[in-house]
Amino acid sequence: MSAPKKRRIGSILRWLIAIVGITYVLWNIRFHDRVRVITPGPDFQVSEVRVWNDAGEKDATFVIDADQRTVLRSDLWTLPDRKTVETADPQQSGKTRKWKLIAVRPAGDLPSPAVELLVEDGDSKQRQIIPPAAVVTRDPIRVTYPLVEVGVSRMVREADWSFLAVAILLMPLSYLLTSYRWHVLLKSQQIRIGMARTFVINMVGAFYNSFMPGSTGGDLAKAYYASKYSEHRTRAILTVVVDRIIGLLALFVLGGVLAAFQWHVPECRKVAIAAGIVVTATAAGLLVFYTPALRRGTGLDWLLGKLPMQKQVGQAVHAMELYGKQPRVIIWAFLCSFPVHVTTILSATMSGQAFHLPLSPLYYWVIVPVIALVGAIPISPQGAGVMEFFAVQLTIHRGVTVAQAVALVMSIRLVTIFWNVLAGIFVLKGGYHAPTEAEQHELEDDGKEADTGSVPRPAPATNDVVAADKGKPT
C-alpha cells in the first residue's frame, strides 16, 4: 500500500472516530431541561420529557411535556449510580440473579437513598419495580444524578461569566512556562535559540494546534522550525518530543497522586491505577535504556540496530544519552511542568464553577488531566468527540449531566482555542525570517566551537523559518 493511500486511510479513520464521538455526545445532550417519568403501562418505559419554567431540584411539582401537565416530585425517576444489581434467586437457594438497573426513584433531596428501582431481566427483557432491600449488595444504592437535567440553553443563560473571564485570563501563563521549559531542553542540547525566539516558535505551534489533530499537532510545526537552527536537526526535533513526553508524564503523576487521595471514589481508583502503570512502565523503560547491560540483555540495542533510517536513529540515541548526562535539566523541566498543569486545572475549575457543576474542587484535579491526556491523542482536531466522551463517563455518576460535562469540555477547548488563534498574530506579523547578518555571524562563531567538540553549528535558515525576536539569540 502506498504512503499517500495509508495517510488517506488514517485520516478517514481519525475523522470517523471523531464523528462517532461527536454523534454520541449530541445524541445524549439536551438543549432544553428534561426530567424522567415512567409512562403508564406494563412495560415500565422511561420517557425523557421537557420540563418548563426553569424547574429546580427541590420543586414539589413540575410542569412537563407539550401539553404542560403537572407531575409531583415523587413521580420523577433518574439515572442510577451503577449498571447492574443482584437479588436472591427464589428458584435456587444461595444463588443470585443479575438485573440491569434502568432507573431509580429518590427518597428526598439529592444525594439520597433510592426508594424504588426499575430493573430489567437480561434474558426476557421484562421490567419490574423492586425495593432496594431486595438487592444483595454491601453498598447502598444512592441517587446522585440530578432529577432535572439542565439543558444547554439554560446553562449558557445562567452561566457566571466572571468565572469564565478568570478561566481565560489564567491560560497565558501556561504558554510562558512551556516556552521556558522547551528553551531549557534546547539549551541542554547546545541548540542556540533565544528565549524570545523560542516563545514565538511555541506560539506558532499553538496556532497550528487550533486545527491539527489532537493538542499535539502543533509539535510538528515546532520541530520543523527549530530544526532550521542547528546542523543537528534530529536533536532539535527530539527536544520537542522530549518536551511533550515530560509534560504528559508530569500530568500522569499529578492526576494519579490526586486520584489516589480520593481512592474511595471508583473513577479515581481507575485513574490512579492507570497513572501508576504508565509511570512505572516509563521508569522501567528509562532504566533499561540508560543501563548498557540491560539494553543489551533485553535486546533493545538489537532492535534499535534493525530500525530504518539508522543515521537518524543513531543521532536520536546520542541526544537521549546527552540528556542522561544532565539529569538536573530533566528534573528541572519535569518540575516546570507542574505549574503548567496547575494553571490548566485551575482554569477548568473556573469554567466548571461558571456552569455550576456539582463537583468538588479536588475532583477537577483528577478529571481534567484525563481530559487533557485524551485530547492530546492525534485523533481529531482539538480532540473533538473524544474529550466529551471521557468527560461524560467520569462525571455522570457525580451528579453532572451530559450537558454540563459537554459545557465543561467546550469551555476548556474554547479557552485554549481563543489563545491559540490569538497566537496567529505571530504568523500574520510576517515574523518568519532567516537570522539577521549579525545573528548569522554569532551562529557561525558557535559553529566553530562545535567543530572543536563543544557546541553544534546551526545550519543557515531559510526565509520561511520561525518568527524571530528582534534581538540577538542568547
Short key terms for the protein model shown above:
2 domains, 10 strands, 17 helices, alpha+beta, cell membrane
Structural features, described:
It holds the Pfam family LPG_synthase_TM. Its main location: membrane. This protein has helices spanning 3-28, 152-158, 161-170, 172-188, 195-209, 218-227, 233-260, 266-289, 292-297, 300-306, 310-324, 327-354, 361-376, 386-395, 402-422, 425-428, 437-451; strands at residues 34-38, 46-50, 61-64, 69-72, 76-77, 84-88, 96-106, 112-121, 127-130, 142-143. With 474 residues, it is of the alpha+beta class. Strand 7 and strand 8 form a beta hairpin. It has two domains: 35-148, no CATH class; 162-428, no CATH class. It starts with a helix and ends in a 23-residue tail after the last helix. The strands form three sheets. Strands 6, 7, 8, 9 and 10 form a five-stranded antiparallel beta sheet that branches. A three-stranded antiparallel beta sheet has the order 2-1-5, with no helix packed on it. A two-stranded antiparallel sheet has the order 3-4.
Instruction: Give the amount of beta strand, in percent.
Output: 5-15%
Tertiary shape: elongated
Ranges with pLDDT <50 over ≥5 residues? 430-435, 446-474
Number of domains: 2
The major pleated sheet works out as: 5 strands, antiparallel
Mean pLDDT: 77
Backbone CA Rg: 27 Å
Tally of extended strands? 10
Total helices: the number is: 17
First-last Cα distance: 47 Å
Order of helices and strands: HEEEEEEEEEEHHHHHHHHHHHHHHHH
Q: Give the fraction of residues assigned to helices.
A: 40-55%
The helix/strand class is alpha+beta
